[in-house]
Amino acid sequence: MPFEPGEWAPLGPAPGMVYSRFPKHRRGETGVPAAPVIDVTDLTKRFGDLLAVDRVSFALAPGEILGLLGANGAGKTTTLQLVLGLTAPTSGRIRVLGMDIEKKRRAVLQRVNFSSAYISLPTNLTAWENLLVFSRLYGLRRARAKILGLLERFEIPHVLNRVVGSLSSGQITRLNLCKALLNDPEVLFLDEPTASLDPDIAEKVRCTLLDIQHERHLSIIWTSHNMQEITNLCDRVIFLARGRVVLEGGPQEILDRTRADSLDEVFISVARSGNLHLPAVEATAPASAGIP
Ligand SMILES: Nc1ncnc2c1ncn2[C@@H]1O[C@H](COP(=O)(O)OP(=O)(O)OP(=O)(O)O)[C@@H](O)[C@H]1O
Ligand SMILES: [Mg+2]
Where are the domains positioned within the chain? Predict the structure, then answer.
């Protein structure tokens, strides 16, 4: 896919510009409130004395990109792992695509996928072998064409026959993204998908992911410490602090509400105080952060 510089929303967009390339699915624009693809209620995860996730509630609308934000250790990755059924909750309810993750994990995992900068693929297998293993797990018919197409799309066709252990971290990140898209997921969990990418490749990857999201009306939960990326990409964000939801809303809405100049400012306030202490904020997060 040819990459055209500046194709996705520019940095520091004026209100209304951010989503101009991607016609919205959201309730206000379609007038149709859609059933959430993810519905999480009072989700709690305790590791010994530590409450990593503390009564978190949120929903993800079809085709929505939701940013999950918060300081190191705030509970983002644990939340994603819970929603994927990779770890069991201490309490709470998780429904994905209308199914209870604890009862229908297998069926859910056929229709969702995830990518993490920090989960490694087997290093002694080549990129091709890795993707072939996953293709077989998903029962893909035209695995070869799918794999080659994805590697091409993320501009790493040359790594096909190289063992993963010999790849750069940026190449592994993109290979992970190819893995995450093999089964044409309806819901994608991206845990810091651009963390190890140089600014040029990061922009191309954002653009490619947005193209795919738009083509397939994909629903995405996206974590990142890059607030500009979040501002530009996400329809809505949730800030976690010490496992709790402390702020939720559209990026511009949050800036309007807090009168902060940037999400970086909001992030730092939340990270340092465990809550939001910007002068203009009247109230912190809603107890339940559902679809707006
Ligand atoms: N398996 C585990 N056993 C014990 N504690 C854990 C485990 N996994 C995570 N934690 C703890 O839970 C808390 C939340 O961790 P989590 O990885 O969800 O944070 P995060 O928001 O993803 O942070 P980061 O931005 O650094 O990726 C941290 O205090 C972490 O040390
Ligand atoms: Mg994490």
Answer: 35-111+228-292
Q: Which helix (H) or strand (E) holds 174?
A: helix 169-181
CA 182/CA 143 separation, integer angstroms = 8
Query: Which residues are CB-neighbours of 12 under 8 A, at least 6 positions away?
Result: 228
Taking the C-alpha atoms of residue 32 and residue 29, their distance in angstroms, rounded to an integer, is 8
User: CATH code for 35-111+228-292?
Assistant: 3.40.50.300
- 4 C-alpha to ligand 2 centroid (Å): 31
| Ligand 1 atom at minimal distance to the Cα of residue 70 | 21
Quickly list DSSP for 41-84: EEEEEEETTEEEEEEEEEEE-TT-EEEEEESTTSSHHHHHHHHT
Among 69, 76, 78, 225, the mutation site with the greatest number of ligand 1 atoms within 8 A of its Cβ is: 78
Ligand 1: residue whose CA is nearest its atom 28: 73
**What pLDDT sits at residue 273?**
80
* Residue stretches of the chain with pLDDT short of 70: 1-33, 275-292
Ligand 1 centre distance from Cα of residue 189 (Å): 17
